[in-house]
Amino acid sequence: MFVSTFEKQLDAKRRIVVPQEFRALISGAFDGVVCFPSIEADCIEGGGQPLLDRYVGVIGELDFGDPIRSALETSVLGGLAKMAFDTAGRITLPEQLCDMFGLEDWVVIVGLGDRFQIWDREVFQAHRSAQRDLARDGLARLRAAQRVSRLGGAS
Description:
155 residues; Chemotaxis protein chec; 6-stranded antiparallel β-sheet; 5 helices; 8 strands
């Protein structure tokens, strides 16, 4: 699983070192990562072949011509970049993706289990704060529902 959060600096050629922990999780015929514009947030989403296979599977479940299928094909497959690791474990982010999300200097790489995201450092700080608030509220609602369920089941 991709876990933890790392701050990295982009060099002048838009290269970043992919954390060794992440590189170790990616194996297969292609020694690198796939990245594309995230659907859920203003950042780059990335991972290995299993992530790509997962998206292709979801797309394949939708009927040809379905507008959601078309949107996923355009966003994921059309925005996909395969990036091989160099000898130092770096990838070069495509200029288009960097421009799309304002990635110029410091970035944050966030592990999310079967995938990771690459964010502008300042944008991520605001996102992380909002996500923490959402997680707290969601957990409190879940606990309240569990209490109601236990009390209702005991009657």
